[in-house]
Amino acid sequence: MSHLSSDPIFPICDLFSSIQGEGTWSGRPMVFLRFWGCPLSCSWCDEPLHKDPNARIEMSIGDILKKIQQSTPHIPTVLLTGGEPLAVKELPQLISSLKKTGKWLAMESSGIGYDIPDGLDWLTISPKKTVAKDKMLRADELKFIVGPHPSDEQKADINHWAANHPNVWLQPVGDGDIPNPQATKTALELVMASQGRLRLSTQIHKYLKIP
Ligand code: SF4
After folding, report:
1. Domain extents in the chain
2. Full-model pTM
3. Among 42, 43, 141, 196, whose CB has the most other CB atoms within 10 angstroms?
């Protein structure tokens, strides 16, 4: 497929519809646009597709809009996820085009990459390393992935944001298709001790065995 040079190409590895399984919008139907590639390499990453060179598809804005319109015209919500959408310089152009189609547009990011673009209706930052304060405050939702034994540094970070952001979630790290039991216990203890400031995210799509 050929593209005009002014028509940016986006590295995508999946485009599908399902329900959101995590955080504030759990249960809400969404189109998931998954970007290929991420500048980070988290050992627990549960999205292997974004690292698989064979899964990388190059799509123009027109390709993406057409695929969404043809396959999921009845779903008004789109989630940009990854991989890392914020690592793509031309992201603002895609957001602007998607907004013109009337979609409610959300993005999930580790916060590592370019500035947060305008036009998003919902932003989730899931920090894997220190993220600039302005990006954390810009997020509608913060989601920390918690391992079995979080470091004192991560606990201090979680406590700081629990006191300074209204919507903070802890999500136990995965162990295959289920949450790691010790991580779940740890996250639950932190949530229960948080005086109502933290919430537990449980990845319901994994229990339901859906994408
Ligand atoms: S930031 Fe997210 S997508 Fe990137 S390697 Fe870590 S878990 Fe995977």
Report:
1. 9-208
2. 0.94
3. 141
Tokens coding 34: 């998954």
Q: Is 43 exposed, middle or buried (0-12, 13-18, 19+ CB in 10 A)?
A: exposed
Q: What is the mean pLDDT of the chain?
A: 94
What ligand 1 atom has the least distance to the C-alpha of 112? 1
- The Cα 83–Cα 88 span in angstroms is 10
Q: Which ligand 1 atom lies nearest to the CA of residue 44?
A: 7
97 φ/ψ sector (left φ>0, alpha ψ -120 to 50, else beta): alpha
Compute, in angstroms, the gap from residue 125 CA to the centroid of ligand 1. Answer: 12
Q: Which fold has domain 9-208?
A: TIM Barrel (3.20.20)
Q: Is 20 in the pocket of ligand 1 (CB under 6 A)?
A: no
Token pair 């920390």 in the structure block, residue: 144
* CA 86–ligand 1 middle distance (angstroms): 12
CA of 169: how far to CAs of 7, 57, 145, in Å? 37, 32, 9
